Task: structure prediction
Amino acid sequence: MAPPPLIYLAALLVVVLCREFARLPIAAGRSTRLPGLVLVAAAVSTALWGRRTMMAAGTNIRPNLPAKAIVTSGPFRFSRNPLYCSLTLLYLGLSTLLNTWWGVVVLVPVLLVMHYGVVRREERYLERKFGEEYRRYRRSVRRYL
Result:
């Protein structure tokens, strides 16, 4: 699979292209600016928190490198995938700033690719590598939100 940030970036480029052909505005004027900025700020904050937590736990942040530990603190107490959730928030925030419903339309296939092509594969890997420790964590913390 492509790295998750590239999946979201490619989707955002599709949104920009679609918007050129049919704007599909969410709202009139600039009324989407504040909600878009709030979503972007929440995304960046969550990503930084998750990154710091993973670094403190001594594990790799990049999904193509081996996991060294199951991280259960910080945002990982609430979601097993807070970094992917933050990518989704960032994508939605940028789509909102672009003031187009195309962001929601294109998000559907992105989420399917992320779920089946990235998250489920990572879960199988973590279960093989960490066994019962990961299964306990999986039972106690939601996959997304």
User: Anything to note?
Assistant: The helical segments are 4-21, 33-57, 82-97, 102-130, 132-140. Residues 102-130 form the longest helix (29 residues).
